[in-house]
Amino acid sequence: MKYPIGLQSFEEVRSEGFLYIDKTDLIYRLAAEGKYYFLSRPRRFGKSLLISTLESYFAGRKDLFSGLAIEALEKDWKSYPILQLDLNNQKYETPESLNEILNLNVSKWEAIYGRYDEEVTLSLRFSGVIERACKKTGKQVVILVDEYDKPLLQAINNVPLQSAYRSTLKAFYSVLKTQDRYIRFALLTGVTKFGKVSVFSDLNNLQDLSMDEAFQSLCGITEEEVHNYFAEPIQALAEKNGITEEKTRARLKERYDGYHFVENGIGIYNPFSLLNTFKRLQFGSYWFETGTPSYLVELLKADNYQLPDLTEEQVTGDFLNSIDSLSNNPIPVIYQSGYLTIKDYDPEFRIYRLGFPNKEVEEGFFTYLMPFYTRVRESETVFAIANFVRDLRSGRPEQFMKRMETLFADTDYKIVGNSELYFQNAFYLVAKMMGFYTKVERTTSNGRIDLTIETQDHVYIVEFKLDGSAEAALQQINDKNYAQPFAMDGRKLYKIGVNFSLEKRCIEGWLIE
Q1: C-alpha to C-alpha distance for 360 and 351, rounded to whole angstroms
Q2: Strand stretches in 301-366, DSSP E
Q3: Burial track 376-408 (b if 16+ CB lie within 10 A, e otherwise)
Q4: Helix, strand, or coil here: 456?
Q5: Closest CA relative to residue 109, chosen from 89, 134, 90, 88
Q6: Angle, CA 256 vertex, CA 215 and CA 8 arms, to 5°
């Protein structure tokens, strides 16, 4: 089986015999039932291949759709003039960066369909191209825009630059409304949806597919598709890893499934990670290894965000489905970027509860954040956590605490100036990372922060004080009888009292009993 990893050309996928998961019944519905669409999905979820598939369909390439669902649905196979714009292949650092790529594309279209001298702005030129393309061919125009939001995301922390990009794109895309009579179909895709005073404020004719139940599986792979297309790869993966097919399916689901784009919707697998796993016959963090956008950390910085809230977020659909460019709240961007997904829905109040979609994303997200909140370098995160866990499994609490002392020795203030928030977030990250390898329970309430860690042979109860003393922390463990649940446990139990200095932003002392 040939896996189309990284391929974005539908023609290449079909003509070269690569695997194609048939989504053409949905594509036919898009073309037959509507005209203007928008779709946001995380990176590497197949948006570019979707754009390419639509391009082939509207070009009348019936030969490429042989054996697919749409072959029995489409009778006419008409060819339309197609204007395709891809904003992904540019680094956006100045207002001119966006103007240059728009000018390049419009100029290519004008070479085919002509230009009037009076069309001096990009939006006027775009408008003129659409009209002339329709009149010259006698057919309405198809417009396909990939990664419409790339300039806005790259400038997410540069308000003047983002404002300039927003104005340019708003004027450019508004042509879709003014030239409606010349347009057959239009689709804009991206990672995020910027709302309110944004690029879409003039486009009230766009149908948003991002949380549309009928099209929730348009990008990504469903459980049914896993069963229909990957029986042999699952068998090979099971044999390679020495586990049963049942356990293989369960592990695939745990690591790569879990995206939900609509309330009570079906689970969607990450296609990039799934295909890489089958190709290499090895479970990995393939999606995360392709890069995490730096703008996520910038947003967490700007908002002084409390990381434990990530899995406790409850939001409305309007809040979730649109990014207000005037707000610093990172949650809509984190959700739309694929790092959070819908976990539950309250229909009475129309509130969504968010959480991590799967283990790959959860592990990868915390691994990525560790260097920004602690002294651990990016390349050392896994090794640092491995050393923590080995110390705990071997019953070496002194060594464990020395590592903790080093970890919390904050010297560069990477994320926040608030010392308590710095410690809370760093502490949460360490607990979460250790929790991937051993049993960890974390409590933070009313000024109390504690940690209970269980390994096969040892139990650790750690009490933290902020601007108190290690003695007081240890005394609280004893006074409150935190060890009582383990009274009949045969494992060796350690009590550890720790004091964190908010002024010095470090662990100031610790005692072990």
Answers
A1: 26
A2: 314-316, 323-324, 341-346, 351-355
A3: beeeebeebbeebbebbeeeebeebbebbeebb
A4: coil
A5: 134
A6: 60
End-to-end CA distance of the chain: 59
The rounded radius of gyration (Å) of the Cα atoms in the chain is 27
Those residues with Cβ within 8 angstroms of residue 209's Cβ, 6 or more apart along the chain or in another chain: 37, 38, 39, 215, 218
Q: Which two tokens stand for residue 449?
A: 């922060």
Measured CA to CA, the distance from residue 374 to residue 388 in angstroms comes to 14
C-alpha 209 chain-centroid distance: 17
Instruction: Identify each DSSP E strand in 112-191 by its residue range.
Output: 141-146, 183-190
pTM given for the model: 0.90
For 278-295, what is the HEC assignment? HHHCCCCCHHHHCCCCHH
Ordered per-residue pLDDT tens for the chain, 513 residues: 999 999 999 999 999 999 999 999 999 999 999 999 999 999 999 999 999 999 999 999 999 999 999 999 999 999 999 999 999 988 999 999 999 999 999 999 999 999 999 999 999 999 999 999 999 999 999 999 999 989 988 888 888 998 999 999 999 999 999 999 999 999 999 988 876 447 777 777 789 999 999 999 999 999 999 999 999 999 999 999 999 999 999 999 999 999 999 999 999 999 999 999 999 999 999 998 887 777 788 778 777 788 888 888 899 888 777 666 546 678 888 898 899 999 999 999 999 999 999 999 999 998 888 888 787 877 788 888 899 999 999 999 999 999 988 887 754 545 445 677 778 788 888 888 898 888 888 775 555 568 899 999 999 999 988 889 999 999 999 998 999 999 999 999 999 999 988 888 789 999 999
Q: How far apart are CA 172 and CA 124, in angstroms?
A: 8
- Report the half-sphere exposure of 12 (CA within 13 A, side-chain side): 10
Rounded CA gap, 390 and 83, in Å?
58
- Could you tell me if 182 and 44 are in contact, meaning their C-beta atoms sit under 8 angstroms apart? no
288, 378, 376, 439: CA torsion to nearest 10: 20
Pairing relationship of beta strands 351-355 and 341-346 according to DSSP bridges: antiparallel
46: helix, strand or coil: coil
Gap between the Cα atoms of 423 and 416, Å rounded: 10
Number of Cβ atoms within 10 Å of the Cβ of 158: 14
Dihedral angle sign, alpha carbons of residues 49, 50, 51, 54: positive
Give the chain's length. 513
